[in-house]
Amino acid sequence: MSTNNQNDAFNDLFSLDSADFVKKQTSKTIEVFAPKAKEGKDNVYKAIIRFVAWHKSPKQSHVEKYIAWMENPMTNEGFYVDCPSSVGKKSVIQDTFFKLYKSEDIMEKNLAKQKFSRKETHYALVQIIKDPNKPENVGKIMVFKFPKQIWTIIASELEPEVGVAMNPFNPMKAKDFLLNIYEKGVYNAYDQSKFVGENKAIDFQLDGINNTYDGSDDSKANFVSWLEKNSPNLDNYRFKEWDEETTKKVVDIISLVVPSQKMVSEVLVANQLSQYSNSKPKAVKEESIDEDYTDLLSSAKSGNASNNTQASIPTNTGSDMYDDL
Hints:
This protein has 325 residues and is an alpha+beta fold. It has a domain at 32-89 and 118-240: Replication Fork Single-Stranded DNA Binding Protein (Alpha-Beta Complex). The protein has helices at 3-13, 92-101, 106-115, 148-158, 217-230, 244-257, 261-270, 293-302, 321-324; strands at 32-33, 44-52, 62-71, 78-82, 118-130, 141-147, 174-184, 187-189, 194-200, 203-206, 209-212. The strands form 2 sheets. Strands 1, 2, 3, 4, 5, 6, 7, 8 and 9 form a 9-stranded mixed beta sheet that branches. The radius of gyration is 25 Å and the shape is globular.
């Protein structure tokens, strides 16, 4: 040990402070806004938000994908995984669901819904305007994670049956959104949420100064600066390709949960994933499965097949980033 280090250690012996042994708490920044009814007053969560564009790619300000909860019955490890059907790719999760759901065995049908169902999930950036449940979020830009019911409300404004279309991502003229989440049985219901008020320019605070977007060059520059400084990275929430570890975990779960080894072999071969199985399945003829089982379940309950029509966000054709915003 050098002389300097020895002197430092010697001096520390006689200058110890209680704070030197207190573990410092580090606060993790929460960027996802995914409120639940139970978090609100009397189990009703209300907040006012404003949708904002993703400044790095304004025409991709809305993310839609399917996610599935996978759980290993041996280790009890559970995790969410992006379903490849989100980007039009063949999915072993989707194929397993259909194999089980089309079975005449009621237990296998239930197993499909309990273990291999996927959920349509959406993401967009929002400014929190008013939130009495979590006032610390007011003024922040957060990643709003929301279900299909909310997207249906947004889509009805983008492509209304009557009236003029409204783009909620437009900083110059768009409406605020009233988020109203309440409990319906054991689920969160969103059907009472709606756009409120009149179209107006967005208000924001940059470096402690209140601003209202007015379309001028200075206002555009300030607005983009505000987005750049405060926006979480929306690209982190887009579909993620599976790595080797994720693929192996999913295959292990299918092998453990599905009771029929023949069925396991069929879905693994059909998805070219046999190499990830501990027991090599025999080659079988690939079966094409291209239905959307989310709608299949809905139709099973209602008796009618639902039409899953998605609306696209109308945008300007200009190539300039400001124009896109």
